[in-house]
Amino acid sequence: MRNDPSFIELRARQRARALLDDGSYRELLDPFDEIISPWLGPQGIVPQADDGMVVAKGTINGKPSVVIAIEGAFQGGSMGEVSGAKMAAALELAAEDNRNGIPTQAVLCLETGGVRLQEANLGLAAIADIHAAIVDLRRYAPVVGIVAGTVGCFGGMSIAAALCSYLVVTREARLGLNGPQVIEQEAGIEEYDSRDRPFIWSMTGGEVRYQSGLVDALVGDGIHAVKQAMNTLLDKGVRREERTDKYPWFLEHLSRFDTRQQADTARITAFFAGEEK
């Protein structure tokens, strides 16, 4: 029997509760508030009362915190008008708390395919608000992103992950701008076979992302392991230099990357180590 139950197997609400101190969990705009997407029903899609977004206030190690968890089982964790507004507003309020002398940190559980296609521009606008809110908040308190599995983190929300102060992943996690099926559709199966699971994880899986320095902690999928990594990163506080501040280095190296050769784990890790010619 496992001593550390799986974090991956938890639903969004369970993840948020597990990360906060015992007895401190308080959900904002929970399902009983019945704030649903107005766009799914007319398209024949059954909406969910929380729109797949859980926002919980409480404490982590006694410090004021907000945990925002995306439900990957609802519409693939996609971001629409309501779910995106819930996340953006929670982050904006956390930043405002900091400006008012209440040091509030944030943890984001990211299981999302990005924008919800049924809500298109509304979802894109919400994701842009989320990006701005993360950049605002991380000046005052750390924002820790957790990508555990099974959906992964793709699309505009992968940019949100990159903007976080710190990132935690499991080996089951995937992190990338475009999802495998999108790449296959646009570039062809010879370039990217979305059914080849070992290949997909060798490109965008948690382990290669950690080896490449794009995330800060690689852990097993146990609840305790995830919480321990989260606590360690929160204790580091605000970063002196954000990963996104290094964009000139990334742009310069990307301009020299030879796309005529098929990328693999070795080439990816060599590239991010500055060794790829």
From TrEMBL:
Q: What does the UniProt keyword field contain?
A: Membrane, Transferase, Transmembrane, Transmembrane helix
What NCBIfam families does the annotation carry?
A: malonate_beta, PRK07189.1
Looking up Pfam families in the UniProt record yields:
Carboxyl_trans (PF01039)
Q: Which residue intervals define the domain CoA carboxyltransferase N-terminal in the entry?
A: 1-242
Q: Which residues cross the membrane?
A: 143-169
**Family matches, as Gene3D superfamilies:** 2-enoyl-CoA Hydratase, Chain A, domain 1
Originating organism: Shimwellia blattae (strain ATCC 29907 / DSM 4481 / JCM 1650 / NBRC 105725 / CDC 9005-74) (Escherichia blattae)
Gene Ontology MF, one = transferase activity
Q: Biological process (GO) annotations?
A: carbohydrate metabolic process; fatty acid biosynthetic process; malonyl-CoA biosynthetic process
- Name the InterPro entries on file: AcCoA_carboxyl_beta, ClpP/crotonase-like_dom_sf, COA_CT_N, Malonate_beta
Q: What is this protein called?
A: Putative methylmalonyl-CoA carboxyltransferase 12S subunit
Domain of life of the native organism: Bacteria
Please give the SUPFAM superfamilies that the UniProt record associates with this protein. ClpP/crotonase
